[in-house]
Structures are given as C-alpha cells and as structure tokens.
Design a protein that fits this description.
Helix content: under 10%
Largest sheet: 4 strands, antiparallel
Distance between the termini: 39 Å
Number of strands: 10
Mean pLDDT: 77
Structural class: mainly beta
Strand content: 25-35%
Strand order of the largest sheet: 3-4-8-7
Low-confidence stretches: 13-18
C-alpha cells in the first residue's frame, strides 16, 4: 500500500528577508523554523529571534490599527506565524471563560490581508526608499494566518489559545 508522507519545505526562514529589519511582509518577526525529529516522528514550530516577539503568535490590540472592510471596529487581531489548516482556529478566552473563536481576516492593511504592523511601517519605509536611504521595500502580502475576534464589551482579561497539528496548545 501507499504510505502517507508528511514533509515540510522551508524556502526561507527569516521573517524580515532584509526589508524591514524587524518583521516580514506577513507580519512574522525575524525567526527560524525549528524542526524536531523523534524516531519516525517529525514536528516543527516557528521560533522568533527577537525577544520583543513571542514564538508562536502575536496579538494586535483593538484600537492600535485602522480597521478596514472585513475587520470589525474593536477587533483583536491574532497573527499565528506557523498556522496551517491542521491547527485549530484561535480561541478567545475572556476572564477565564471561552468566549468564541477567531475568524480569518478578509481585508486588513495595505490593499491586502496584511499584518497591520507591517502595513503601518510600509509607507514610511517606502518614503526612505524614494529618498535613496533604503533598497526597494516589498508591499505587504496576503497571508492565511491572520485572525480577528471582537472581545465582549467590558472585558478585562483576554487570553488567546490555539492548538497546533501536534496537539501543543499555544497561549
């Protein structure tokens, strides 16, 4: 019979690819993919090289970005760097109770489903490029790992949980 084969191809592991210095076009920080081999088992995860960013995901607080079509005002954004369709959707927990799941963003930032942090910096870096201070700065690009949820009004403490393809829950 045919065995199923699980493989991971990593074409580039750095988040910034020398364009922003801090974050990549999809909002991932500088980082690497850590691959673990245990006998016949293979797993991987993203590891940030910048202490300002967590390893698995970052949260973007409501009110710190310009919401656009497809993202409700007051939304909390979650960028899960290594997310794929074998992960769960991120879950929103408020004051210790599950309050719902995040949904994929459909339109954020600069003409695409871009991480708002990169979309915010893009025009500023672009201005430096025009002035000759930087190399060409790539536009932000769509990604499948940016999610949004609107916390209930009056929420005080939010937590986000997402489980990867190997059952490891990231908080």
């Amino acid at each position: 019979g045919v065995r199923s084969l699980n493989s991971a191809t990593v074409g580039r592991v750095g988040g910034s690819w020398a364009c922003s210095g801090e974050i990549g076009r999809d909002g991932c920080p500088r980082g690497m993919v850590e691959v673990k081999v245990d006998g016949t088992q293979l797993s991987w995860r993203f590891r940030s090289l910048d202490s300002n960013y967590p390893d698995d995901m970052k949260l973007i607080a409501p009110g710190t970005f310009e919401p656009t079509e497809g993202v409700e005002p007051g939304a909390l954004l979650c960028n899960v760097y290594a997310w794929d369709n074998l992960w769960t959707l991120p879950e929103l927990w408020i004051d210790g109770k599950k309050a719902g799941e995040f949904r994929h963003c459909t339109c954020v930032g600069y003409d695409s489903v871009a991480d708002p942090e990169y979309a915010y910096w893009f025009p500023k870096w672009k201005a430096l490029e025009i002035q000759g201070f930087r190399n060409e700065i790539p536009k932000p690009y769509d990604n499948n790992h940016l999610f949004a949820a609107v916390p209930p009004k009056g929420s005080h403490e939010a937590e986000v949980r997402v489980t990867d393809r190997w059952g490891r829950t990231c908080i």
